[in-house]
Design brief:
single chain, alpha/beta, five-stranded mixed beta sheet, rod-shaped, cell membrane, Biopolymer transport protein ExbD/TolR, transport
């Protein structure tokens, strides 16, 4: 009489399939489509909502406004609101990026600990 061998389970095949699925999902998660060249990241002109009342609005020509009133510069804004942990700014999409960066730096120098840009998606 022959001794009957126990039948082996196909665990190696299952491990190979799981490993291949893991590699596939890792590769799929790291690939991202390129950004469209015509993509506009910030749009405030056609908003249906309003900017938060505590936000500093920056127009395309660099004018600053807070609660509907004109503000001279970042230091004047910080003097008006006092020391703030977080300063929110709502920039116009046509505002040049270097101007926006300079404004953020000026707000930090004037006492803001953190400067946050509010975009169309972030408004309620």
């Amino acid at each position: 009489m022959k001794a009957e061998r126990p039948r082996r389970e196909p665990t190696i095949a299952l491990i190979n399939i799981v490993f291949l699925m893991l590699i596939f999902f890792m590769a799929a998660a790291t690939l991202a489509p390129p950004l469209d060249g015509a993509l506009k990241l910030v749009r405030t002109a056609d908003l249906e909502g309003r900017a938060p009342t505590d936000a500093l609005v920056v127009h395309a020509d660099g004018r600053l406004a807070y609660r509907g009133a004109a503000v001279a510069d970042a230091a004047a804004y910080m003097a008006q609101v006092g020391p703030e942990e977080i300063v929110r700014i709502v920039p116009d999409a046509a505002l040049p990026a270097p101007d926006l960066i300079r404004l953020g730096e000026a707000l930090r120098r004037a006492g803001a600990r953190r400067v946050v840009m509010v975009t169309e998606r972030g408004l309620p």
